[in-house]
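Expect chain and fold; see below:
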Amino acid sequence: MLSLGNKLTLNTQPIYHFVNKRSIVFDGVDDCIITDGADTVAQNTTYSFWSKSSQTGNNRVFGHGDQYRGGFWFNFANTPLLFLGFDFYIQFTDIPAQDDGEWHHWVVYLSTNLIDSKLYCDGVLQAKTNTVSSGSLEPYTESLTIGGTQASGGSYFTGNIDEFAVFDRELTQAEI
């Protein structure tokens, strides 16, 4: 069972967290978790989750209203990608972990200034391969959607997600 926890006030804890005994399987068609009021404003945020997927095409992990609004993808042109706006995104090193069908721990640090954004896989900081900053940060139009870019009519994730947490700050390497 997956449930959204209560909002926490300690800065050492996630803003919202999921407590579960099993992972959620997303079919890539329309499965998603729509949060209610979680992470509704573009701000510096860390997303931490476990995932496994064998999908080698575009695979949207989460978003905030459409594909260009605070969205994270596996396999966008074969690389992990963090979209903060049209022509305002970062691509990271192509790594097998995004589609090898095994469990991996992912940490995405979304910085509103884009350049400070980071991606970790299994505790290892991933290199940035392409930063496009000719656009600007797009304001969120929806609360956090896990397993897709938006609540309805978006693009969705194929695979499993477990232990998804959202923090209102950058985590340290030791915390990751």
In short: The longest strand covers residues 158-167. The mean pLDDT is 88. DSSP finds no helices and 15 strands in the chain.
